[in-house]
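quick q for whoever's on today - can somebody do inverse folding on this one?? i tried earlier but teh output was garbage lol. tokens:
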């Protein structure tokens, strides 16, 4: 869209880490106000701008929203760092929300959150750290990470061994792997993943799930997007995988234990937020099973019935919810409808 107003706004996380927000809008004062959009692990805000006819950012802008893409500490636009969900929940998302409020003059905003951006943002929300956010649309996983059986095996058995040889996993090893562990993983992936010729696509599936592929259905992506995604994935720390491993074993999110001021268990007690939550899940997701979002919806519905919502998408997986060539027709209108639904 030629008339976008776009600029990058730096913000400092609560522990001093330099992060940023990419603001995209069509006019000085968009009529529907600000929406914060939060990416997952080892990608960046740009993941919502796939080369399709109308990507998610395009759609929100055209619908009249002031879009703020948060590059938190998991972003590949920042220097690699050994983060966990606690740090993001306590330090990154509250400061990002504060910065959007400061920059826009709105005292209430909305958010669309995905994958580990969703888990960590939900930790912020239920801890009462982002009271300015009144509507939260979550995709793929939130408080209850449920993964396929093979993913559990990899977390339990392979992760400790991999962690002996590297501090990060990196899908870029599908293009270039240097060192013993990266080269070993590259060879394992090449030997076991034959679903396409894109080395990064195959590494992503090995790293994050149990499918062939795990994060999207190939038929949902156009060829340009399948090529584009080679540049959209990079380092994710073993520290994070060790944290999510604990959460998967517990059945819901728990603190990693290093940051004070957060609950030890995020399922215990009443959520410290009055936000309305809407949960999306692709039924073909092989990273986090759709049961993840069903459980979290039930958790919130038990606390406050008939206010929150759940949408299962039968032909979608994980990231194709945002990157799919038909997502602007199949998914985005429903998300916008829910952003505008006061409940």
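ok took a stab at it. sequence:
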């Amino acid at each position: 869209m030629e008339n976008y107003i776009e600029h990058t706004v730096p913000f400092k996380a609560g522990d001093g880490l330099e992060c940023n927000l990419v603001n995209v809008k069509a006019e000085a004062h968009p009529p529907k106000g600000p929406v914060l959009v939060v990416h997952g692990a080892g990608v960046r805000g740009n993941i919502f701008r796939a080369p399709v006819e109308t990507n998610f950012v395009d759609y929100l802008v055209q619908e009249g929203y002031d879009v703020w893409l948060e590059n938190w500490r998991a972003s590949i636009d920042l220097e690699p760092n050994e983060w966990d969900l606690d740090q993001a929940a306590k330090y990154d998302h509250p400061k990002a929300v504060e910065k959007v409020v400061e920059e826009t003059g709105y005292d209430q905003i909305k958010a669309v959150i995905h994958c580990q951006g969703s888990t960590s943002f939900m930790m912020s929300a239920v801890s009462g750290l982002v009271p300015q956010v009144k509507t939260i649309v979550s995709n793929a996983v939130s408080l209850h990470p449920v993964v396929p059986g093979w993913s559990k095996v990899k977390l339990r058995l392979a992760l400790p061994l991999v962690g002996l040889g590297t501090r990060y996993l990196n899908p870029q090893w599908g293009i270039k792997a240097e060192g013993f562990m990266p080269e070993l993983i590259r060879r394992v992936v090449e030997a076991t993943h034959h679903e396409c010729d894109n080395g990064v696509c195959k590494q992503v599936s090995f790293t994050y799930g149990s499918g062939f592929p795990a994060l999207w259905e190939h038929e949902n992506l156009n060829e340009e997007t399948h090529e584009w995604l080679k540049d959209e994935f990079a380092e994710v720390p073993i520290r994070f995988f060790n944290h999510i491993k604990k959460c998967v074993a517990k059945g819901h999110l728990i603190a990693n234990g290093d940051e004070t001021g957060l609950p030890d268990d995020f399922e215990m007690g009443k959520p410290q937020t009055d936000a309305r939550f809407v949960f999306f899940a692709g039924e073909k997701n092989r990273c986090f099973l759709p049961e993840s979002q069903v459980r979290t919806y039930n958790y919130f519905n038990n606390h406050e019935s008939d206010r929150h919502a759940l949408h299962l998408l039968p032909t979608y997986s994980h990231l194709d919810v945002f990157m799919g060539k038909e997502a602007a027709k199949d998914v985005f209108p429903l998300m916008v409808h829910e952003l505008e639904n006061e409940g």
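fwiw The radius of gyration is 19 Å. also The chain has a mean pLDDT of 97. so keep that in mind when u check it
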